[in-house]
Every structure is written in C-alpha cells, then in structure tokens.
Design a protein that fits this description.
Residues 135-412 form the NADH:quinone oxidoreductase/Mrp antiporter transmembrane domain. The chain is mostly helical and 661 residues long. 71% of the residues lie in helices and 3% in strands.
C-alpha cells in the first residue's frame, strides 16, 4: 500500500471515529472508547504514511478522483510538506480523542457530547484531505468541510449568547478566508489548474506576484490568527469545549501556516521585502498577543491570546527564512525554516496540553475566571504537573521543546545580523529584542496563571480529588513529547530537512545540515543534564519533606488575626503593573468604586481588557456603515412590484450606458 493510500485510509478511519458515539443503543462511554480506537488506527496509518515519505522509504504518490466540478476535479498528493503536518495532526487528534473518554465523565447521558465526538471526527478527516489537496478546487472543498465541522463542534452550547456570538465570528472569518482563496486562485491560473505548480516555478517579481502574496496573507492570515486578522480567535477558543479548543489552537490555526508555506513554495527567490513584511507581522502578533494575554481574567481566553503570540513567532521565523532566501544566505534560510517548522509541532503539542489541562480545571471548578481559582494543585496534582510542563514549554525554557525552536530562531537572527546586508540586518536586529520581550512577558504571564490557579489558598471549594486516567494519560503523552523534543532535538532534524529540501528543491544540494549548524548534539547533552538535575532536586525535596515531622505554629500575619484567601494576590493584581505600562496598547477599562463618602457602603471594582481591534475598531466601523445604509435598506420592502421596477430601471440604465460606450 502506497503512502497516499495509507493517508486516505487514515482519513476514512477518522471520519468513522465519531459514528459509534452517535449510535443510540451504545452508552456514551462505550461509544467514545470505540471512537478512540478508530482514531488511534487512523492516526497509526497516517503517521506511517508520513514517516515513509519523510524518511524516503517510498514516494508519496498522486491520485485524481474522477468527480468533475465546474472548476476542475478532485486531486490528491502526499508530499513532504503534507506529511510533516500529519505528525502534529495525528498526535494531537489521538490525545484529544483519548482525553474525551474522561473529559465529561460526570455527564454519561449527555447526547450532545456524542455530537461533539462526531463533529470532531469529521473535522479531523477534512483536515487530512485538505493537507492532501493537490489543486485549488480540492483545497476549497475540504477547507469548507473543515470549517463547518469545527464550527458545529465548537457551538455545542449554542443557546448561550457568547457561544453563538463566537461561532458567528468564526464562521464569518472562515468564509472570509474562502473568498480570499477564490481570489488567490483567480489571480494565478497555475494555482487554480489541474495541479498546483511545482516548487520554485513561479516568478516572484511583478505586480501579479505581489497581489498573490498579499491575498494569501489575508486569507491564510485570518485562519492562522495573525494580528490584526485574529478577531475571531479569542472568543472561539474561549467558548468552545476544551478538547475542541485544543484542536483549534493546536491544529486548525496551523492550516493557515500550511497555506502560507504552500504558496511561498511556488515562487523562486523572493524579494527582500517579503521577508521584512513577515518579520514585521510576526513581531506585531508575538508582542501584542502576549500583552493581551497578560490582561485576561479568563484562563481559556488567555491561552487563546498565547496562540496569537506563538503564531507570531512562527511568522517571524518564516520571515528570517525569506530574508535568507532573498540574500542567498543558506545558513539563515535553513535556520529560519527549521525554527518555523519545528515551532509548528512544538506549539501544537504544548498548547494542546495547556488547553486540555485548562479543561479539567474549568470542569472541576465550574468557572473560567482565574481570580476565583486557587490551590488546585492539592485536588488535581497530575493536571498541575502537566500544566506546569506546558507552561515551561510555552515560555521557551529548557529542557523542553519550546526552547529548541526559539533557540534556532535566535541563532538564525544573530547569524543573519552578522552576515546579511544592511537592510536585512536592520530588520533582524529589530526582531531579536522583540522575541526576547515576548519570552519575558510570556514567563510573567504563566507565573501569574500557575501561581494563581494551582498554588496558594483556594478561593472557592476545591473539586473532588479525582482525575480520570484517560484525560491524564492524554496529557502525559503530550508532556512526554514536549520533553522528548527538548532533550533529543537532533531527532527532529531528520524529518525537517526533507521538508525544507522539497519546498525549495533548487537549493537541495547546497543546504547545510541543521544539526551541524545549530550544534544540536551539545544542546541535547545540556538539556539532558539539566533534566537529571531537576529530577534529583525533586527527589531530594520530596524525601526531605517526608523525613521532616509536621509542625503547626503561628506565622507573622502582618497584623491580621485571621488571614484568608481574599487577602491573596489575584491574577488581576499580579498583572496590574504590566497592564498599566502597556495601557496605550491594551486600553484597559476600569470601573472603580466611589469612595467619596465618609462612610461608603458596599462597592465593587472591575477591570477588563477588551479586544481592541474588534471592539474598538471593526464593530464601531460596521455599526457606522450600518447606520449610513439604513435608507438603502428601505428598498428591500418585500413587494414584488417594487422589485420588478428595480429591474426595469437597472435595464434602462444599462441600455443607456451602452449607447455611450
């Protein structure tokens, strides 16, 4: 069986994975277990196909389906880029399916959960087929199928106004991407033909190439969540079920990155300003994304903004690679491409881990408000450890995987700064402090989150100390993958280099080795030593706690006779200084109590960081347009006679114009 046939089998099993959960005579738990088995079989087939292509054990192959559409026929092809994106897709999808067996264990009779399982399988199968698309009509067909499946899954609680609003934003953004793809394929007949053009076959110079790049950035940038095209993302991620949030953040966002990689591969050596544009967009997304994350009180909305931040890091790395390609700097090109591709996998792993952990927290506490949580490490110890692992990884700290991809990006930027011409070096020099600022702010944000949610005194009743083995097992697999890439980074280079060579085959013989260029062996040794030291310190600390007898004694209470959880720092107070520093960007809204009376009564304080682009820009603009068009809407009066008159007037106007032209 060829790798492409294996991939098609994987898509079929993913599609069928949601069917058992819908069967009315099958209990929900049993149906989910059967669905998980189907998903695991599909993932095994998909990963086998991907590894066969990436490890050069067999050709990917191409297949055209004899199902003709007005714009062409369905065509499929498995190449190294598609195979690479299979790896995070199937790992994350399998873990989400396993997690689903225990995520809603308190509601065994809720058939709505069965629908989520079904829509999840449909979405994963559509993503597989989308990655296999070999022409424009196939990509559009399965893009819409993916968007619809994800929309239905995220709108499980559609009766809630905020869920309906988030679903509407997501659907509008998805259709905006679809319209952009229609324009993209119309601008380039080669892209809309029977097959996508070969890598490096299109000329990047001229107005046509510029238009294609800008339309691709608009369409795929909406799906990826590049700021300021991200407006659908925070609400959708926050209001979807947590396992669907993990799918959207870990996989669906990456489809926008996949589209950008695919379009860029069609062109030869690009102009330098392409790389500069990607660098600037990446800097804005990374810095602004982490800033808005710091000001959030909703744990899932906070994680959603960190998705924007990490998409910005990926786009920055793509900009570094484009700068290297434009200037002929092979080392810069390879390091940038490797950083971008590896961070795609890394972000899929640790962000899915964080959303799954947040799902258990929200499920146990009944709230997404960080300020109402506290002390959950006692009730949810495994979830606490898994969330800590994801937090360290997303902050780019060793010895986990986030450090490796950011290390490659730093190394690429410093290399480019030292060896590239002046204009390219200037943009790279701007990106270095931006990435450092992003990392520092991300660390502050997750210190806030982890410290408030899992440490300290509980601010609400703790949930029962019960963690379902399926849910913790799924998080354990993702955490182990984060650790594996962090300790053995050179193991990933074998699947990165074929992708880079396939995207730009004209440079295949000239590409330097990632492992040699970045010194990944030394990095691996350092990460292994650090991991062993952490393990030894943890064992020493635990043994010391066990050996030391417990004592109860009074502590200095600063004059408070009975300290309580209400006196602890909240997430809002922790982030207050940073929000104040960047108030010009975040535009925080504060509703302070009135204390002008001698004996004021009960008051309340509330602070909120709005979605500035949506709430302060897009919605007011659309509201103004709506008011201006109110008179025109009166023409839509529902009377057939009026519509016939409109047609007659339009016909007379067209005939009159034809007389003059």
């Amino acid at each position: 069986m060829s790798p492409l046939e294996l991939a098609l089998v994987a898509a079929l099993f993913c599609l069928l994975s949601g069917v058992p959960a819908l069967w009315p005579r099958v209990p929900l738990f049993t149906g989910r277990r059967i669905s998980g088995c189907f998903m695991a079989v599909g993932a095994a087939a998909g990963l086998g196909a991907a590894l066969r292509v990436l490890l050069k054990e067999g050709p990917g192959g191409a297949y055209a389906l004899a199902w003709h559409f007005p714009m062409g026929e369905l065509a499929f092809r498995l190449d190294p880029l598609s195979a690479f994106f299979f790896i995070p897709l199937f790992i994350v999808a399998t873990c989400i399916s396993l997690y689903g067996c225990g995520y809603c264990s308190t509601t065994p009779d809720n058939r709505g959960e069965s629908l989520v399982t079904f829509y999840f399988g449909v979405a994963v199968a559509a993503i597989v087929m989308l990655l296999l698309a070999a022409n424009g009509i196939t990509l559009l067909f399965f893009w819409e199928a993916m968007a619809l499946g994800t929309f239905l899954a995220m709108c499980l609680e559609h009766d809630k106004p905020e869920v309906g609003r988030a679903g509407l934003h997501y659907l509008v953004a998805s259709h905006g991407t679809t319209i952009s793809l229609f324009v993209l394929f119309a601008l380039s007949p080669a892209m809309g033909g029977p097959l996508f053009p070969p890598p490096g076959s299109l000329d990047p110079s001229g107005a046509g190439a510029t238009a294609i790049l800008l339309v691709a950035l608009l369409g795929f940038g909406i799906k990826a969540g590049i700021m300021p095209l991200h407006v659908w993302l925070p609400g959708a991620h926050a209001n979807a079920p947590s396992n669907i949030s993990a799918l959207m953040s870990g996989i669906v966002l990456k489809l926008g990155i996949y589209g950008l990689f695919r379009v860029l591969s069609f062109f030869g050596q690009p102009p330098l300003w392409w790389g500069a544009l990607f660098l600037c967009l990446g800097i804005v997304s990374a810095v602004a994304g982490v800033l808005f994350a710091i000001g959030q009180h909703d744990i899932k909305r906070l994680l959603a903004y960190h998705s924007i931040e990490n998409i910005g890091i990926i786009v920055m790395a793509m900009g570094v690679a484009l700068c290297g390609l434009a200037t002929g700097n092979r080392v810069l090109f390879v390091l940038g491409q490797a950083a971008a591709l590896l961070h795609v996998v890394n972000h899929a792993l640790f962000k899915s881990l964080l959303f799954l952990g947040a799902g258990i927290v929200v499920h146990g506490t009944g709230t997404r408000a960080i300020d109402r949580m506290g002390g959950l490490a006692r009730a949810l110890p495994i979830t606490s450890a898994a969330f800590l692992t994801g937090s360290v990884a997303i902050c780019g700290l060793p010895p986990l995987n986030g450090f490796v991809s950011e290390f490659l990006l730093y190394l690429g930027m410093f290399t480019g700064f030292a060896t590239s011409p002046g204009s390219s070096a200037a943009f790279l020099a701007l990106a270095v402090p931006a990435l450092a600022l992003t990392g520092g702010l991300a660390l502050a944000c997750f210190v806030k989150v982890y410290g408030t949610v899992f440490l300290g005194l509980p601010r609400s009743p703790l949930p029962p100390r019960h963690e379902h083995p399926a849910a913790t097992g799924a998080m354990g697999i993702l955490a182990a993958c984060c650790l594996l890439i962090g300790v053995l980074p050179f193991s990933a280079t074998r699947i990165l280099e074929p992708v880079i060579a396939a995207l730009f085959p004209q440079r295949d013989a000239l590409l330097p080795s990632i492992q040699t260029t970045a010194g990944l062996v030394g990095l691996s040794i350092g990460a292994a030593i650090l991991f062993l030291l952490i393990c030894l310190l943890a064992v020493f600390y635990i043994n010391r706690l066990k050996a030391k007898p417990l004592e109860e004694t009074g502590t200095w209470d600063c004059g408070y006779a009975a300290p309580s959880a209400a006196m602890e720092y909240t997430a809002s107070s922790f982030a207050g200084m940073l929000v104040g520093i960047f108030a010009a960007i975040l535009r925080p809204e504060r509703h302070e109590p009135a204390t002008d009376k001698l004996f004021p009564g009960p008051e309340r304080f509330e602070s909120h960081v709005p979605e500035v682009v949506l709430d302060k820009g897009i919605l007011p603009f659309l509201g103004a347009v709506d008011r201006r068009l109110a008179l025109i809407r009166r023409l839509q009066n529902g009377q057939l006679n009026s519509y016939i008159l409109y047609i007659f007037v339009a016909l007379i106007a067209v005939l009159s114009l034809s007389y003059f032209y």
